[in-house]
Amino acid sequence: MCGIVAYLGDKQAYPILIKGLHRLEYRGYDSSGIAIINGNLNLYKRKGKVEELEKFVKGKDVSGTIGIAHTRWATHGEPNDENAHPHFSQNKELSIIHNGIIENYNSLKEELITRGHVFNSDTDTEVLIHLIEDVQENENLDLAESVRVALNQVVGAYAIVVISKNDNNTLIAAKKGSPLVIGSGDGEFLIASDATPIVEYTRKVVYLEDEEMAILERGKEIVLKSISNIKHTPYFQELTMNLDVLEKGGYEHFMLKEIFEQPHSIRESMRGRLRLGQGIISLGGITEYKQKLMNAKRIIMIACGTSWHAGLVGEYLFEELTRIPVEVEYASEFRYRKPVINEDDVVIAISQSGETADTLAAIKMAKEKGATILGICNVVGSSIPRETHAGSYTHAGPEIGVASTKAFTSQVTLLTMMALMIAHDKGTITNSRHQQIINALNDIPEQIEDVLKTTDAITKDIAAKFKDSRNFLYLGRGYNFPVALEGALKLKEISYIHAEGYPAAEMKHGPIALIDEEMPVVVIAPKKGNYDKVVSNIQEVKARKGKIIALVSKGDTEVRAVADYVIEIPDVEEMLVPLVATIPLQLLSYYIAVMRNCNVDQPRNLAKSVTVE
To answer: Are residues 548 and 589 in the same domain?
Structure first.
């Protein structure tokens, strides 16, 4: 959600912090701020992008070797200078940055007001730093102990870093429900909400656990303890991220770069797992729970947003290949509707970030009911891998664009491999059919490379014709219904055009009323499955003067004869069509957004990692 970065060492903090904020801006970009200790506690913050902060601090004192910085995605209080982080305590001697939500901030605030505290913002974060100061003054505790005691009064999620004007040698960090990683370098510490600002300076990191805090002192080893005051031993991990993946690499936007990275990211998802010569798929992360999957009476997939659409594709895959019933649930709804969960259920949680708050909460609830929980996520060291019994990483690499692209196709690739592995071991697929699909899956990256080459210019031309449309309708059947949903979501997210995805057969049960000569209708119509039925649906749209943009199998003539615009995709296995059909829809959304002068990488109101409910 928000971006956190902090530094303590012998270098000047400001250049490191500001670069870190730029790296983290995809996590939040409503406002940003920085606080640096240099005798004084100098705090500067501004509404808007990080570049607005840079302009504001020009000529001001930003010297110092300890500091904290933040880029915000607004929860409590509108985006403005006052609500931007960092926040001061009442006496302006402490400052805090925070990601998450303090649910009981209102009652805490009321109590603090009765003690004379005056607040300058609408945020829950300012309440927390006032609480820490109140504890410190009234109980005569040091900074670390004051933070620990205060956090025991807090209900909600948080990742925080606190500094004190009176101690330029110490950073205090803590987390619950929101990610926080600490990098240890040569005489320096770096803290961030993900590894992107850290990788340039150190490969040695510690991921904080829930209700764990870190005391970082200049010249000393890291000290970890729980907020219940139990000391922990730091577990250091080695970062494997490459710095070049955090740069645009000559592309105009991260989103375009990530669209074109999909042949590589899908290969990475399959690397070492799809063993073509042996005719097997091996997912080491779930080996111990393979039998549980094979014997499952039901699989429940929980996710949000784009990951939910990947889960819908997974439902088709698992039911066709393994013959196990599958339900796909919005994590945000699943946790609140008193679902029936049995001990022989397997829950598959899907999340790009591995930090999605609703998905994490749903995982914890399902675990309490005795279900087996498997995770599919992209970010190594994130919370979902730690909360699940087992799982697999997608290995898509960092995804900086807020609108997910390569994460989706990597999730679908992993779900395909998982379903094939279980089907093969369970005997619900013949050996020859299993080998046939494995061969076809292995060919997908090369086919996507062809799609990118052949459809880039076509989607750009179509975008130019429809960039001023107010509505879009996306239609698909079977495996392509989730593709229609995902195509519509991408357009909504980055171009702000209203779009809806529907099963093609459902169009006549309502949405057909919207169709006129102003309505572009995108139809995913490969020559597979219910092709003839989809052609009939296209005819229904044409009869009402709707404009048809059709995705068709290479060489198709029937749909081409009636469609206004045609985008060809390779003729692949029906269950693999989502992997190739998604690509031109991503490009179409991208070019429409660019032509509408939208901020493609940082669309309004959205954040990459949704760590609040």
So the answer is: yes
